[in-house]
């Protein structure tokens, strides 16, 4: 379903990522109903003049989630939290969608998975794949033929060379550089500002220039 100005959207999350997603919605001229939280104490507070409607199970929230025309954007930085939300929302009639800022430059030959959020100023070149429910933050440049797995978080200003493979549930910190043809294994973390010149194994933490595994 194509999103229009009349498509009702719910934003999951209440942190900085949710505020950016609201900016994306405004840039796309999309109607946002409000925010969903996992914290009871946030219910009925406001974020940038929009109401935090409540939690899963709350009557008003459930009514919206059982509407097949409602669309959901998950705006949460931590990949494990995104996974939990996807699982919790899987039985609802509302659909989780991808959300891409109109200033992002994305090749028509790139593929964007379900539930991906792409911030302003991102570039994704030809034949690259962004896996479902990944988060790509502002100023990131992704070269051609890159494969990014599901539930990956790429922070601001990351440079990813052609042919890179980043496996599922990885985190790449702000300003990191990943050289062409490098592989990063599942559930690994790359520290901010690191320069990755060689492959990083699964479940590793790597920092520095050049990046070295520390865990």
Q: What brief labels describe this structure?
A:
8-stranded mixed β-sheet; 3 helices; 6-stranded mixed β-sheet; 25 strands; UDP N-Acetylglucosamine Acyltransferase, domain 1; alpha/beta; 2 domains
What does the model show?
This protein has 215 residues and is of the alpha/beta class. It has two domains: 90 residues, Rossmann fold; 110 residues, Hexapeptide repeat proteins (UDP N-Acetylglucosamine Acyltransferase, domain 1, 3 Solenoid), CATH 2.160.10.10. It is built from three helices and 25 strands. The strands form four sheets. Strands 7-10-13-16-19-22-24-25 form an eight-stranded mixed β-sheet, covered by helices on one side. A six-stranded mixed β-sheet has the order 3-4-2-1-5-6, with helices on both faces. It has a six-stranded parallel β-sheet with strand order 8-11-14-17-20-23, with no helix packed on it. A hairpin with a 2-residue loop joins strand 3 and strand 4. It is globular and about 50 Å long.
Brief sketch in words of this structure:
Helix content is 14%, strand content 29%. The chain has three helices and 25 strands. Strands 7-10-13-16-19-22-24-25 form an eight-stranded mixed beta sheet, covered by helices on one side.
**Order of strands side by side in the largest beta sheet?**
7-10-13-16-19-22-24-25
Radius of gyration: 17 Å
Termini separation (Å)?
Answer: 44 Å
Q: Which structural category do the helix and sheet elements fall into?
A: alpha/beta
Amount of helix: 10-25%
CATH class of the largest domain: Mainly Beta
For the largest beta-sheet, the strand count, sense and barrel status come to: 8 strands, mixed
Can you say what the CATH homologous superfamily of the largest domain is?
Answer: Hexapeptide repeat proteins
Mean pLDDT: 95
pLDDT < 50 runs, ≥5 residues: none
When the domains are counted, the total is: 2
Number of strands: 25
String of helices and strands: EHEEEHEHEEEEEEEEEEEEEEEEEEEE
**Number of H- or I-type helical stretches:** 3
Q: Which architecture name of the largest domain does CATH use?
A: 3 Solenoid
Q: Name the beta content range.
A: 25-35%
CATH topology of the largest domain: UDP N-Acetylglucosamine Acyltransferase, domain 1
């Amino acid at each position: 379903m194509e999103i229009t100005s009349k498509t009702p959207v719910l934003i999951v999350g209440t942190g900085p990522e949710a505020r950016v997603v609201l900016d994306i919605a405004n840039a796309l001229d999309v109607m946002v109903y409000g925010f969903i939280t996992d914290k009871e104490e946030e219910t009925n507070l406001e974020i940038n003049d929009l109401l935090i409607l409540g939690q899963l199970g709350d009557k008003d929230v459930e009514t919206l989630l059982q509407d097949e025309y409602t669309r959901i954007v998950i705006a949460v930085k931590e990949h494990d939290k995104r996974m939990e939300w996807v699982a919790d929302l899987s039985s609802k009639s509302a659909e989780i969608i991808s959300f891409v800022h109109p200033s992002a430059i994305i090749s028509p030959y790139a593929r964007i998975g379900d539930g991906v959020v792409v911030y302003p100023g991102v570039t994704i070149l030809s034949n690259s794949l962004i896996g479902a429910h990944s988060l790509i933050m502002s100023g990131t440049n992704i070269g051609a033929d890159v494969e990014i797995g599901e539930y990956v978080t790429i922070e601001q200003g990351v440079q990813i060379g052609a042919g890179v493979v980043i496996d599922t549930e990885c985190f790449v910190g702000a300003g990191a550089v990943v050289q062409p043809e490098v592989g990063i294994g599942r559930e690994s973390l790359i520290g901010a500002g690191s320069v990755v010149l060689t492959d990083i194994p699964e479940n590793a933490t790597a920092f520095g220039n050049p990046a070295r595994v520390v865990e």
